[in-house]
Amino acid sequence: MLADDAPRHTGPDFGKASPMGLLVIVLLLLATVFLIRSMNRQLKKVPESFDRDNPSPTRPPTKERATSSGHG
Known about the structure:
The protein is mainly alpha-helical. The protein has 2 helices and no strands. The chain has helices spanning about 15-45, 65.
């Protein structure tokens, strides 16, 4: 019959891709979980707002602030 002539894929490397692929996927998943946890910790340290108490964007920089940049 025709079913008896099915292709036989039983070489020396048959079936080795599946466990290695699973290992790679699990390692990528673990790395992603650790990166997400680390990012969440870092984001908790960031202040909710970077605005100062009394922001005034039209105020020119003072001499003290201009010289504190280290240029002169």
